Amino acid sequence: MKQTRQLFTVLGVRDLTDSTYVLRLQWSGPEIIPGQRMALGIPGLDERRWYSVYSRPNPHEVEFLIREVPGGLLSRAFRRSQPGDNLEVIGPKGHFVIDPATLDSTTYLFIATGTGVAPFHAFVQAYPDLNYILLHGVRYMEERYDMQDYHAERYIACVSGESGGDFHGRVTDYIEQMDVPPTHKIYLCGNQQMIYQVYYNLISRDHPKDGFAAEVYF
């Protein structure tokens, strides 16, 4: 099925680190459900990249958390875009979402690496009463993107490349020592290796297989 491309205007770029930034676009398309993703591209080029929405639902604008990849044509171009430039957008799409009917009865364990934290940021912004714990695996302290937007007691930074944070090591190390009740709903977003390791670790401890949702970031 051919995917419809639409043009939307760049509103701004907010740098977070030397390699990571938030891209903000004007939006007048379909309603975005927190956790969904969209494909961004440059008009005239066939290449596109999918990114989870980073911001809370807003009928007028949308944000994306993007890491500039060395040698990456699009991530470099998006960062250098100026207010008023147009980008091609496909979406929103995806089912990595929360059922609002379960919000009052569920504890969520969000586990992310790097910019895989994007959909969880959208969840927390959209659902202020959400009962959650967020494990965020990063190499450096500066990669705790917009950590002030999370409840301090619910955000656990697992920092592997330097001292600091809440835990020195990877999220896969942290999860091995963590007591995870079988009633927790597990959402995983990040690199494939992390997702597999966490999934099989918890499955080996009899966590129900239907208690997981995953989104792979390459």
From TrEMBL:
Which parts of the chain are coiled coil?
none
State one molecular function term (GO). Answer: oxidoreductase activity
Record-annotated membrane-spanning stretches:
none
The record's section on SUPFAM superfamilies has: Ferredoxin reductase-like, C-terminal NADP-linked domain, Riboflavin synthase domain-like
**Domain FAD-binding FR-type: residue ranges:** 3-99
| Pfam families on file | FAD_binding_6, NAD_binding_1
Q: Which domain of life, per UniProt?
A: Bacteria
Q: Which PROSITE patterns match?
A: FAD_FR (PS51384)
Q: Please report the name of this protein according to its UniProt entry.
A: 2-polyprenylphenol hydroxylase-like oxidoreductase
From which organism does this entry originate?
Spirochaeta africana (strain ATCC 700263 / DSM 8902 / Z-7692)
